[in-house]
Write the structure tokens for this entry.
Amino acid sequence: MSGSKLNPNVWQGEERDGGFVKLNPAPKSGGSPTHIGRLWIPGYGWVWLSGWLKRGHDQFVSLRARDMSDADALKWCAPKRGNGAAKQPFHPPPATGQLDLGEDEPPDPDIPF
């Protein structure tokens, strides 16, 4: 399984990894994550991040990742305008197993590949 590949994290035309975590503004219980966020992993897709602040000898945030659905990616990961992101959300074409060469031009027989 993998995360949603809709709306990839693109900056100035290039796909890049990245995301964020922030303090959870509305924890539902004492076991709720103290931090929440999302992350784009190239080749994998979007994942949700949950983090719990741990204190002991050192202070750290313990993380857990889970796959994001396509519906959530459309809602929460839409490209922002004005920061170099794509103007339209990315929707991968359906996998047909065939290359669309177009109807107007047949393949060039002189190309060796």
Q: What stands out?
A: The chain has a mean pLDDT of 78. The two ends are 33 Å apart (CA to CA).
